[in-house]
Amino acid sequence: MVRGKTQLKRIENATSRQVTFSKRRNGLLKKAFELSVLCDAEVALIIFSPRGKLYEFSSSSMQDTIERYRRNSRSAQPMQKSDEQNMQNLRQETASLMKKIELLEASKRKLMGEGLGSCSMEELQQIEQQLEKSVSTVRARKNQVYKNQIVQLKEKEKALLVENARLSKQGMQPQQTTKDQRENQPYAERSPSSDVVTELFIGLHRS
Fold first, then answer.
1. How many whole angstroms separate alpha carbon 54 and alpha carbon 43?
2. Tell me, what's a Pfam family for it (predicted)?
3. CA Rg, the chain, in Å?
4. Residue 129's domain spans which residues?
5. Tens digits of residue pLDDT in 153-205
């Protein structure tokens, strides 16, 4: 037979209530003892009966355990308050950032020429001034880039002119014949009398 669940409500009969208290008190004290032994936990249990009688269990010293609980409670409260304050600050910062993003998006659309129907004359003048300032900044930057490129090109041109002058000077310099080159030339090329023909006759000279 399946046992039904006991309905949790106050037992009206005083005798039954006292019997139930005694049974469950003993079971709770037993569980506290087992928890301290099996898990090496520091356990303290305090029970007051309906008549005000005290029942307690402590795995070590009840006073030391209570003092430890008080210390942890005091240290946990400021930390909890600090966490709540940090969360509140984060929510405020998030809301502020979202608002700034919305304003920037609206300003961007207006600068792109969108959503101008609801703008007043003063707002339109401010947008016009911002655009003119942006155009001036872009033009100034473009001119600076042009100037830098011109300077670089002039430096390259100057370097090329110097290199061309050096190469031209080397190519137009006359070659000089060294002593070794003259000695290695053939005799016919070096002797000025190489074109004279000498005849040798043996015997009487004939006029």
1. 17
2. SRF-TF
3. 56
4. 124-154
5. 999 999 999 989 888 888 755 444 455 555 555 544 444 444 444 454 445 55
